[in-house]
Design brief:
mainly alpha
Length: about 110
């Protein structure tokens, strides 16, 4: 019996892998790479959304500034001729395009 043990000293751990009990590292690296790609993609799209919001905010601020300037040039008198002159000086040309822009923004949010 001693001779069999001396001849085959590795027979005790026959059920274990020959790698010394270590697991393969390839699948773990693959999972880490996939998660990293997903996180970086999410950050990229989030950054694009934030930048788009900033551009729209700047555009609306510029439009608001021109509207404020136009309101400041209007008179404060309540007599009819002053009100009529303010109405004729008021530009209503962009109202339709602004409403269309607002509608397209709402449609974009619904998608």
């Amino acid at each position: 019996m001693d001779r069999e043990q001396n001849q085959n000293p590795n027979m005790e751990g026959m059920g274990e892998p020959a790698t010394g009990g270590q697991r393969p590292i390839g699948p773990a690296i693959g999972v880490v790479v996939i998660l990293l790609v997903i996180v970086l993609g999410g950050l990229y799209f989030w950054g694009q959304r934030v930048e788009r919001g900033k551009i729209q905010e700047r555009a609306s601020e510029q439009g608001a500034q021109t509207d404020i300037q136009a309101l400041q040039t209007q008179g404060t008198s309540d007599d009819v001729t002053s009100i009529e002159s303010d109405l004729t000086a008021t530009s209503l040309e962009g109202v339709g395009s602004e409403l269309n822009a607002i509608e397209s923004e709402f449609q974009g949010l619904g998608q």
